[in-house]
Write a structure and sequence with these properties.
Oligomer: heterodimer
Order of helices and strands of chain A: HHHEEEEHHHHHHHHHEEEEHHHHHHHH
Radius of gyration of chain B: 17 Å
Protein name (chain B): Iron transporter
Keywords (chain A): Membrane, Transmembrane, Transmembrane helix
InterPro entries (chain A): PepSY-ass_TM
Strand content of chain B: under 5%
Order of helices and strands of chain B: HHHH
Number of strands of chain B: 0
Keywords (chain B): Membrane, Transmembrane, Transmembrane helix
Transmembrane segments (chain B): 21-45, 51-71, 78-96
Shape of chain A: globular
Largest sheet of chain B: none
Chain lengths: 528, 100
Amino acid sequence: MKDSFFRSMTWLHTWTGLLVCWLLFLIFFAGTLSFFRHEITLWSQPAIHDVAPQENRVLSQQSQITSALQHLEANAADAETWWVGLPSERTRAIEVSYQDKGKEGKRGQWHDQFMDPNTEETLNEYRDSKGGLFFYRLHFNLHYMDRTVARWLVSLASLFMLIGLISGIVIHKRIFKDMFQFRKGKGVRTWLDAHNLSSVLALPFHIMITYTGLVTLIFMLFPYPAMTQYEEGRKAFFADLNPARQHADITGNQVEMLPMKQLVDQFYTNWPNIDVKRVIVDHPSDETAQLKFYANTGTKVQDEMPVWIYNTVTGELVMTANTELSVSETLYDGMIALHTGRLALPGLRWLFFMCGIAGCVMIGSGAVMWAKRIRERMKVGKTASFGLRLVEGLNLATIMGLPVATAAFFFANRLLPDSFTGRAEAEIHLFFLGWLGVALMALYKAGTAQWRQLAQFNAVLWLLLPLCNAFTTQGNLVSYIVKQQWVLAGFDILCLITAAVFYIQSRKLANKDAANPAISRTLKGQVV
Amino acid sequence: MFISHIGTWFKSAPFLVCSRFFAAIVGGYVFSAIAVSLLAAVVPLPKTDSVLLAVSLSILVYACVFIWVFSVRKLQKVYGLLILLGTCQAVLLAFIKGWL
């Protein structure tokens, strides 16, 4: 009985894993980058590179909010929404955005701008780029497809991941021993060790991130408790949970709002020490207009930000919400906060990032191992089946293709002219074009030679990226270090490390080719 | 001839595998949906809290059922227990909510 349980779990682990490993790799890859999404966004906006960090961040917020709202009052009176994001520990400039009124059921266009937090003047050069937000969205919305379908696909892959993790633990006989075991240069054994090592070392992270990831989409996946508890359905539940989320539709009846300065001053008279994260005005000058202040939750285990809502005509405080959480809310919010890593200070954030990379290694090595095993068992001289070749092609396309695509995205950010229309979209198209190029090559042939060539190509791309940055912006790695701009310096250093890793990989693959000319000949000649 | 053909097809490995995956993915999903809805109905907490608690645990329930489906040898037992327990819980939920 025990033996059959063990066997069924091994089977389950292999097949659930193989079925979704490429999608999972994409999700993990994009998710790992998303831990640094604000940093990537900073890199992708050269205009704010030299904005000096503030000394009294919270103290200067009152005047910053006033300036930003006055700027919107003067320039976007007819907008649907005003949106002001204040600098935090990880974002540097004030983000000042507004959204046009929607037409014919379509949502209005957003217009974004930056404001210098020190001088409170608008910076003109805003680069039309999604930056880190692209990877964040890619992580759960994928791209070029319907959002809901994408989220169900991502959820299914995550569920399989969770099943893979649980069955993986079950089939694992010596969990502790594997933590210290890596047998080098032993073919499939080595891949198994890499798979075990990356899984076991970061196991708590893998389980946490997969579980909480599913929880982020839980009201799409399991709306039933909300639907059965509330007769009017999910919407009634959300209204009950967070009254601040509700707001009336625009009516078109114009009213005279109080001056923004007066409203902001009023907020600060009552709540002088709040670290504000963002300020939003819904429907300015409409009778449904509301001014909302959101507080920064900082390192607190809380996802929904505390909010204060003001009536813009009377100046009365309509509502405060999310200032105290119940136990269940803390459990739920805590899971979401853990997943997004919003509360993580730099040390923990790097640990999350490393664990994310371990996740990518785990998924990648598992997929490669499957193909290696089948190939090892194959009789000499027999041609590989379509299934095996497909898996090998997809492995190469995903594992080596995503770094190429990411580099393409970053190069596009630096090289596309600012005046280019649809610039942000073009960057994303280039990401997928880069990936498509690698995928076509991989599906045509996926032998050691192709792995080596792509490793070399990646090494060159990632080495050139800091150089390209130095030629197209004011700064470079040396100036970043001198000026102590650690985020930008870190970006360049990570690029160089990535290039080095790919270079080492290409050398290893070359040695393998040279050591085994006979095998590589058969690989080239027959099976691949 | 034709009947026996279908009979062997029902016993073939691809069908059994697909059937088991169906039991795990769809059966497990429906079962978990009922179970967590019942949980939300019975825990003595305010409504929003009971819903949040139930959804937070839903993936745990789903994953356990999923693994269980693959660990039981007999497929009939899997379907039987899923349907039986699922129905019991649904009836209980309907009774608590006063739908019956």
